[in-house]
Amino acid sequence: MDQKELILQTEDIHKATEFISSKLDKPVIVENKNFELIAYSSSFEEFDQTQQKTILSKKCPVFIIDRLKKEGIVQKLESKPEPIRIEPIEELGFYQRIVIAAKHLGHTMGYIWVQESTSLLKEEDLIFLEEITSHIGKLIYDAYSRVNVKEGRKDELLWKLIHHEYGSETQFRHDAKLVKLRLPERCVVLIFSITDPQYNDLLGTLKELVIHSPLRKDIQFLKTEFQIVMFVHGRAGAPFSATDTARTFIDEVKQNLDGESFYYFMIGLGKEYTKLIDIRKSFLEALEVIETANFIEPRPETMPREFAKLGVYRYLATLYEKNSSEDYFSEDLLELMKKDTEGQTNLLQTLEVYLANNGKAKQTAAELFIHPNTLNYRLKQILDLTNINLQDFNMKSYLYTELLLLNNVPGYYKRYQEAISVHLKK
């Protein structure tokens, strides 16, 4: 039996994905219509940076989705039945790939992505994708129709809610009443996602912590392969009560795990809502926090875990794409980087910490473990070497954002290093 027949006969979306990957000899990812991960070919390890982020955060990065919409790719997928080839976006770690919409009963259920990092698919491969795509669409539909039924009808309703399968709150409340699902008066979504599949056992530990937590009565949860999604309840008339409970639980997890194990989790907390139909918003917000953490590779405790506190972190991926595609650099920061390289100074870090502390000299010196006089000397060096004006709020905001990229995105720092000699010889 050939691979095509195996795919058309299987009712398991994961097996079908592996068969497609084996047939094409390429890494394959299957996503639903909301660009959320359904399955991927585990036999391949050559996933590009974008696909690695999708696998870890269980959702395609927002800045990639925006780019695809901006270039009309998403619209083409709705109207064209054949595969579409997407050119690489090198600055985003997005390799060339083929994508085709997987439809069922005339509706798009999701997408099949095939990475073409080393060689292009042949014409017969593209025809093969067209022939099996409708079956994949049915499998995606079936997967969400019966998702987590073995865990109970209550879990199934929660999955449908966060995957936007309810048109109204009234319908959800009706179904919830039938299965006696306890509904919150206020709710926030909290997600724990492991940073690497090798730490998968930690999800079992986390599940036990939830079950035995004093806060258990206020937490419902769903477990996936790499994440635990929690619905944290709050009280009517008590704004932020759900958020406070979520914060308390995060602290509880931190106290029960050793320091290193705790940081094997990426944690995202959405905003708190009173309308049940808005719980999906909180879910997507929590995912965005995790996606951002995955993008910038933060040092422990440096990045907010709450969507409401992300601030400029929300825009780092967009700025990274814009600056990289336009080959943009800050001449001031290039000058400081050159000075740090040649003179073994620490001016870039000093500037970042000073800006992060809103210009508070005593706090900055303490954080850097230096004397206030040393800080003043470094700040004078920075001002002498550059056109930086520390009294200009807009300039300070811009510099801080650029420094976050430099110090947390290795590829961005490498760009600056390579540009030092070119830009400073002009």
Automatic annotation (TrEMBL):
Signal peptide: none annotated. It comes from Pontibacillus chungwhensis. This is Helix-turn-helix domain-containing protein. Belongs to the CdaR family. PANTHER family: CARBOHYDRATE DIACID REGULATOR, DNA-BINDING TRANSCRIPTIONAL ACTIVATOR ADER. It holds the Pfam family GGDEF_2. Transmembrane segments: none annotated. InterPro entries: CdaR-like_regulators (IPR051448), CdaR_GGDEF (IPR041522), PucR_C-HTH_dom (IPR025736), PucR_C-HTH_sf (IPR042070).
